[in-house]
Each structure stands twice: as structure tokens, then as C-alpha cells.
Amino acid sequence: MKHLKIIVGTLAVMLLALVGCSINDLSNTPTKQTELFFNKYQTLDQSVLDDLNHVVAAETQFNTEQRERYKELMKKHYQNLTYKIKDEEVNGNTAVVIGEIEVTDYANVLRDSESYLSENPQEFQNDLGEYDVTLYSEYRLNKLEEAKDKVKYTLGV
């Protein structure tokens, strides 16, 4: 799903904006700002939920029920996100924070779902023999709900 990539990209861009904050105050270090940023996802801060609602509303392949299921999946995804700050390098007004996040491996589930669709298109056809996006979306959501494997990403901004 392209929206999952958008969410990860948004995380990276927002992280970049956070590390650019002033570091004159010890409570406002790049590391502290990064921790606050990830905490907003883990605690489902209202701004995070607003962004999620916007992304889910734009998803055209889901019906109303599927949008709600997807939203709940992503909330769980955010709440279960774990992170470690690996390094912080400050050079004047510029800072780079290296962090590692661990999340449920939805990306692999989505790749596997696309492969399954390619290999088994008949399973996602309606009674007229036409491709039915609702059937495929249901399949993907079921697979995402079953996902247990974790993956780690290293982010540096």
C-alpha cells in the first residue's frame, strides 16, 4: 500500500524537522525531541490520529468497514512501535540523530499479498468473473491482522 510508504516517509520528514530544533536547552536536545516524536505515535497523539484519519479517508480501495479495520491496524502498529536512539551528532545548529525502530512487518505482508494476487487472480473475481478490489482488500486486511513478524529500520536525519 502506498499509504504505508507515505506514513514511513512522513515519519522520516517529521523526524528531520524535530532534530533541527534549538539545542540550547537540555530538555530540547535532538534526542529528546526524537523521543517525544516517537512517543506521539505510541500514545496515539491527536495530531497522529488526525494524520491517520486523513490517510485512511484517501484510501480508495477500501469500503467503509475496511477503512475502519485499516485504521485500527495502523493504531496498533503505532502503539507497538519500539525505538532506540543509537547516536546523536551535533555540529553547531545542525544535528543528526540515528535511531532504530521496530515495527510489525506490514511491508512484507503487502508484498506477499501482491504476489498472491498475481499468482491467484481468480480468487479475487466476482460472480461475473471480474476483478473485485473489495475481495482483494479483504484478503490484505486479513493478512495484516495475522502479521506477527517484526522488522527493524535504521533512520538517520
Descriptive labels:
157 residues; alpha+beta; 3-stranded antiparallel beta sheet; single chain; 3 strands
Describe the fold and architecture.
The protein has a 3-stranded antiparallel beta sheet with strand order 1-2-3, with helices on one face. The chain starts with a helix and ends with a strand. α3 packs antiparallel against α4 and α4 packs parallel to α6. The longest helix is centred in the N-terminal third of the chain and has 18 residues. It is elongated and about 65 Å long. A hairpin with a 2-residue loop joins β1 and β2. The chain has one domain. By secondary structure, the protein is an alpha+beta fold.
What's the overall average pLDDT, rounded?
A: 88
**Terminal residue distance:** 24 Å
Number of strands: 3
> Numbering strands along the chain, what is their spatial order in the largest sheet?
1-2-3
Topology diagram in text:
Layout: H1 2-19, H2 30-42, H3 46-58, H4 64-79, E1 82-91, E2 94-104, H5 106-119, H6 133-146, E3 150-156
Antiparallel strand pairs: 1-2, 2-3
Helix pairs in contact: 1-2, 3-4, 4-6, 5-6
How is this structure best summarized?
This protein is an alpha+beta fold and 157 residues long. It has one domain (2-156). 56% of the residues lie in helices and 18% in strands.
